Amino acid sequence: MAHTGSCLCGAITFEISGSLSAPDACHCTMCRKTSGHFWASTDIDKSALNITDVSSLKWFQSSAKVRRGFCETCGSSLFWEPLNNSGKIAVAMGAINQPTGIKLGMHIFTAEKGDYYDIKDGLPQNAT
């Protein structure tokens, strides 16, 4: 099974081979600031990701451990990648074309969530 996706303007398109894992919703301050709300993503093996055009893909190292990939043309947040060579990368759920066939699995860093919303969907919540 393959899934496709793109940024808002279409300058960056990608394909993911294989199944997608249940995404998590990260409510940490950095994810909220980079996405404008909370960040929902699915973790995949980097080898399963094929980015067709990387000319508009830019990376921002948001901490000593992580970098975030975005489109320099339209600003879409697309990827979250640990710098520890784990072989994993997180792909933004909003950038993956539907149907994805998966549902949100959990919320993380809920201790940092915005004060303007509540989490009441019954999914597991981790404060950190």
Topology of helices and strands:
Elements lengths: L1 E5 L6 E5 L6 E3 L2 H7 L3 E7 L3 E3 L5 E5 L4 E6 L5 E6 L5 E5 L13 E3 L20
Family: Belongs to the Gfa family.
GO molecular function, one term: carbon-sulfur lyase activity
InterPro entries: CENP-V/GFA, Mss4-like_sf
Question: What report would you give on this structure?
Answer:
This is GFA family protein. Residues 3-118 form the CENP-V/GFA domain. Keywords: Lyase, Metal-binding, Zinc. GO terms for molecular function: carbon-sulfur lyase activity; metal ion binding. It is a single chain. The protein has 128 residues and is mostly beta strands. 5% of the residues lie in helices and 38% in strands. It is built from one helix and ten strands, in the order βββαβββββββ. The strands form two sheets. A seven-stranded mixed sheet has the order 6-7-8-9-4-3-10. It has a three-stranded antiparallel sheet with strand order 1-2-5, with no helix packed on it. The N and C termini lie far apart (33 Å). The mean pLDDT is 96.
